[in-house]
């Protein structure tokens, strides 16, 4: 069901929000986590939240970062495919846990955190957590206000 947006994207209506969003983006992408990993994280978070606009932009961004169609199609089933590195799997597991906070009492279990910490340093972990939160932020804006994905891929 494709619907019309309720309002323009809130971030575009409030100029300071755009500035803040850009700062969050730059901060998350500034410490050395591979851009492709962050794109996969954004895509997976957006799939979980059902944000069509962000799934679309996430897939497009991942393609620009060099992702293959094979890997993009498999993100939702990353545990069952051989296409992802151990570091990417750790980032995706952390992203899923941090997105589904209400699904279990210990929202981000120690084993999920420890596996991510095995592959990423403290600043990189901070960047991934910040990017998960930012992705969730964009998903909530878009889903609440029914922001559509583009009609066709260009």
UniProtKB/TrEMBL annotation:
Q: Which Gene3D superfamilies match?
A: AhpD-like
Query: What Pfam families does the record point to?
Result: CMD
Keyword list (alphabetical) reads:
Oxidoreductase, Peroxidase
* A molecular-function term among this protein's GO annotations: peroxiredoxin activity
Ranges for the Carboxymuconolactone decarboxylase-like domain?
16-97
Task: Please indicate which superkingdom the organism of origin belongs to.
Answer: Bacteria
NCBIfam families (alphabetical): ahpD_dom
Task: From the Swiss-Prot or TrEMBL record, give the protein name.
Answer: Alkylhydroperoxidase AhpD family core domain-containing protein
Protein source organism = Micromonospora cremea
């Amino acid at each position: 069901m494709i619907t019309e947006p309720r309002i323009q994207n809130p971030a575009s209506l409030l100029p300071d929000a755009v500035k803040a969003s850009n700062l969050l983006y730059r901060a998350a992408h500034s410490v050395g986590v591979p851009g492709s990993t962050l794109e996969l994280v954004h895509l997976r978070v957006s799939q979980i939240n059902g944000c069509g606009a962000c799934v679309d932009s996430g897939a497009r961004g991942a393609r620009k970062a060099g992702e293959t169609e094979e890997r993009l199609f498999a993100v939702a089933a990353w545990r069952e495919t051989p296409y992802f590195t151990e570091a990417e799997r750790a980032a995706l597991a952390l992203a899923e846990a941090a997105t589904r906070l209400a699904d279990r009492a210990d929202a981000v279990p120690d084993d999920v955190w420890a596996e991510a910490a095995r592959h990423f340093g403290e600043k990189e972990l901070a960047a991934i957590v910040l990017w998960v939160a930012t992705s969730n932020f964009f998903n909530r804006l878009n889903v609440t206000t029914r922001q559509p994905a583009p009609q066709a891929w260009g």
